[in-house]
Design a protein that fits this description.
Elements lengths: L1 H13 L20 E7 L3 H9 L1 H5 L5 E4 L7 E4 L16 E5 L3 E6 L6 H5 L4 E11 L2 E9 L8 H20 L10
């Protein structure tokens, strides 16, 4: 996992055009803090990969709609409130950073609309989702959210996502729920 996260960070700094128009380093200092969440689901890795990397897959557990193109620089936009004005529906403007099929996808992530100062900065954090088969029919998902600015406007966003990612991973796990056959 450390190798993949290290690769992503190296990629971001080597090819800044794939990240976003971030403020100059003297304007915004990035902290070392990160959110790390894990869950294991009853499914093969290929199925979990499809849920995170396709329009149809995301609809099964995350958001009302989405726009995703699995290519570096392609959109990774998840819409949570289609009644809101364009630009305030969800993760508009977020982009795919990189991916390794059935192993990892990374993308930029913005602040929710309720955090107007952070969202208005046009800065995006980074999310890395890793997929690891742990045994037959089970996959461990590790989500790492990093790139947090050391600015007060982002403290509430960090707290928000520390809770929100637990919910998202719970929705993912629930999307694989199955009913045990009745005993006869």
């Amino acid at each position: 996992m450390k190798t993949i996260v290290g690769f992503i960070l190296m990629f971001l700094f080597a090819f800044p055009s794939f990240s976003q128009t971030a403020p100059e380093p003297d304007q915004m200092k990035i902290s070392n803090r990160k959110i790390v969440k894990t869950v294991t689901v009853f499914s093969e890795v290929e199925s979990v990969w499809q849920k995170w990397t396709t329009h149809e897959g995301l609809l099964t557990f995350f958001g009302e709609d989405n726009r995703i193109e699995l290519t570096p620089g392609g959109p990774y936009e998840i819409f949570f409130d289609m009644e809101s004005p364009i630009g305030l529906r969800g993760s508009e403007g977020c982009k795919v950073l990189s991916f390794i099929p059935n192993k990892m996808v990374s993308f930029t992530w913005n602040a929710p609309p309720k955090f107007a100062n952070a969202r208005g900065s046009d800065y995006h954090t980074w999310v890395v989702v890793e997929f690891e088969p742990v045994c037959e029919n089970f996959t461990k998902i590790t989500l790492t959210h990093m790139g947090w600015p050391e600015e007060e406007a982002w403290d509430g966003v960090y707290i928000y996502f520390d809770e929100a990612w637990d919910k998202v991973l719970s929705w993912l796990k629930d999307s694989y729920s199955y009913k045990k056959p009745a005993q006869q």
